[in-house]
Write a structure and sequence with these properties.
- With about 70 residues, the chain is mainly alpha-helical.
- The chain has one domain.
- It is about 80% helix and about 0% strand.
- The protein contains 2 helices and no strands.
Length: about 70
């Protein structure tokens, strides 16, 4: 389960970063580019992803110590 959280967190973090950059107009070529909504949603998804990755990493490390 910890590995799933870590992978999901990393994927969400990367998605959030991409959405943020698209919303800010840094990454073009999408209907999301330059749309302020994605510049707001992106950082929220990024933070959620980082929290999930952190929790997954902590659980992986705790499992290795306990086992």
């Amino acid at each position: 389960m910890a590995g799933v959280l870590l992978v999901l967190g990393v994927l969400l973090g990367a998605t959030g970063l991409l959405w943020t950059l698209q919303g800010l107009g840094v990454v073009g070529g999408s209907v999301m580019s330059g749309v302020t909504l994605w510049a707001v949603i992106g950082p929220v998804v990024l933070v959620v992803g980082l929290v999930l990755a952190f929790v997954g990493l902590r659980r992986l490390r705790a499992g290795k110590r306990g086992g």
